[in-house]
Amino acid sequence: MPAPDDIVTRVLAGEPVEAAALDDAALSALLGDSRGRRWLRAWGGLDAALAARLLDWPDDFAARRRDSTLERVVALAPIEALEARASAIASGAAAAALWRRLATDPDRLALVARRVVAGGAAEATLSILVLDPLDELGLGDARRTGIARAALASPSPAARGIAVEFLADVAPAVLLERFDDLAADEDERVRGVVWLTGLRVATHDTFERAVALLADEDAPVEYRRSALVAAGTTLPTSQMADLLSVFVIHPDERLALDAADLLYAHHRNPITAEAARLSPHARVREIAEALLDPRRGSPAAGGSRPGDPTRTIDIFKALLERSDAPGADDAPRR
Questions:
Q1: How many Cβ atoms are within 10 Å of 52's Cβ, its own excluded?
Q2: I want to staple 187 with a disulfide (CB 3.0 to 4.6 A). Which of 74, 79, 156, 157 is the partner?
Q3: Would you say residue 183 lies in a domain?
Q4: What is the pLDDT of residues 97-112, one digit of tens each?
């Protein structure tokens, strides 16, 4: 019988090898070489026991380059072995094959998926299991919600973003339960979706939270900016005018510019425009002057032609008193 090293040499050279020559020593020699393992994955004699041994090299399965031999191993390996290596397999080219194999027991699949999404394969797993609009594996919204909820603990900001966007549509109550933690997430996308969801499904309470956060000068500026922008792109001018009037003169230029941009894009009104004229920041004052220019400004913000008999600011105040807010002006900023 040929020595194991000779068999490896023949395999790597592309020469035929008789199955009888592949004793345990030869298999071990082939398993120790990446090219040998690929040969074994494609070998006609591959069985469940050998497939389980091939899973002991997780780096082979974590590669993203398509390799059909990986799917053969996943198709033959015992379920318990696949579950033990699920995180590595789920991050690579055989991920879809893994979930198809586990789909015979949807509850078991969901249990494995919740563990995987809390680790490094979260994005790929969410794309296959949660974002599929057809739900081809038949998991249902309840299981997919559980997987997305688990992904909120993922170290990947992109995965957390995918999870909150799914939950915002399918199970917004989950985001409200975790609101405080998610509103303080390091990722801007996560914070923004959570604020927008809260303002959509629990408008009054979420707006109060936003005002409280914005009033807290010790809170991180980025958290406050997320609250301000979400409120400003969701709520009517009648609710936002006073708040924006405070923040266009805020000493932090980032908050002041956010407020000025919201004034320009969504909430043109003379009260905030006049306040912006007093901002300590030149860029904010420029926006105010553009809106208030008597020849080229915005009538909604108080800018009008010389000699205009109307008094826009008085009209706006009267509308506010009647709780009849003027519509948002979405004209692009010049």
A1: 18
A2: 157
A3: no
A4: 999 999 999 999 999 9
Q: Which positions of the chain have pLDDT values less than 70? A: 1-5, 17-21, 304-320, 322-334
pLDDT digits (tens, 9 = 90+) for 198-223: 999 999 999 999 999 999 999 999 99
**CA-CA-CA-CA torsion for 176, 180, 183, 184, nearest 10 degrees?**
-160
Q: What range defines the domain where residue 162 resides? A: 103-170
Q: Name residue 96's amino acid.
A: A
| Number of folded domains that form the chain | 1
Mean pLDDT of the chain: 89
User: Which residue is listed with tokens 């409120």?
Assistant: 231
Give me the residue label for tokens 């908050």.
255
- Helix (H) or strand (E) segment spanning residue 306: none
Say what the pTM is: 0.83
Convert 57-86 to b/e letters by CB count within 10 Å (16 or more is b): eeebbbeeeebebbbbbbbbbeeebbbbbb
**DSSP SS3 for 214:** helix
